[in-house]
Amino acid sequence: MSRFDSEGRCELCSGGWLCDPCKTDNRERERKRSEAISRGAKAHRAWDVARTCSRYQLASDEFFSRERKAIAIMERGGA
């Protein structure tokens, strides 16, 4: 049996207070949303690093990789 009525409201929640299953559902939904945002931010950062490497035609040397150089440029506000 479903805990939701025909309008999508939980029948176990009462007076605006969430029941334990709804709390669990909300926690899981927020965890998935947070993971998606984190993946997107990491992908965007990698794209920014690659774009900076290309823009400044960076190459690795014996001291730093091209990605480290790009991150240093970005941190200084050069990109």
Describe the structure.
This protein has 79 residues and is an all-alpha fold. The protein has one domain. Helix content is 58%, strand content 0%. The chain contains two helices and no strands. Helix 1 (20-55) crosses helix 2. It is rod-shaped, with a radius of gyration of 23 Å. The model has no long low-confidence stretch (mean pLDDT 94).
Structural domain tally: 1
Helix content: 55-70%
Overall mean pLDDT stands at 94
C-alpha-based Rg, rounded: 23 Å
The strand count comes to 0
- The SS-based structural class is mainly alpha
Please describe the biggest sheet, giving its number of strands, its sense, and whether it closes into a barrel.
none
Which percent range describes the beta-strand content?
under 5%
N/C terminus separation? 56 Å
Label the overall shape: rod-shaped
Secondary-structure element series: HH
Q: How many helical elements?
A: 2
Q: Which residues sit in consecutive blocks of at least 5 with pLDDT less than 50?
A: none
